[in-house]
Amino acid sequence: MSLSRQKKDEKGNNLLQEFIITQGWLEEVAQHKSNFCSARCQNTPTSLLVVHNISLPAGEFGGNHITDLFLGRLNADAHPSFADIAQLQVSAHCLIRRDGSIIQYVSFEDKAWHAGISSFNGIEQCNDFSIGIELEGSDDIPYEALQYQQLAKLTASLQKYYPLISCDNIVGHCDIAPDRKTDPGQAFNWQYFHQCLQQLKRN
Q1: Is residue 1 a part of any domain in this protein?
Q2: Pairing of strands 119-120, 123-124
Q3: At residue 4, does pLDDT exceed 60?
């Protein structure tokens, strides 16, 4: 029995409408558990969603390099640009690939190491109270429609489990670390994302 609500498109195909989250893990998506995480403080509720982008090598899509980075097994010799990042201890809660598929690395109940030095509404250390979602992409390359749709579905599901994540509390990495980060970049269409989110909620 499916653990997610479904509807059918005009061809009769099942479309995933929302995700079920069990102990911080999404059902029905790939899971590759990263050790680059830490426990949340029980007195700090999750209230922020941070949208990132990532591509390895930069501007190239596909392959397993992103997963390898988040699992601490990136081969520094696989590409010249990897030498400087192979030893980083970083992670995100989820990655949404170009085809819309989702990989989860860290439980939403734990802190992924995605935000770094950061501040939101005057509160520092955003990892403490945020969920980090990576989109496979680059600042100046348009994202795929499936990525927006999946991000909207994931966001709507997270808001049911973490109601403090209001639409005002969905930001880019650039918003919480403006001196260091530019992602998800000018290519990310915030208006379209919010349209997808609102349409999903109306349905």
Answers
A1: no
A2: antiparallel
A3: no
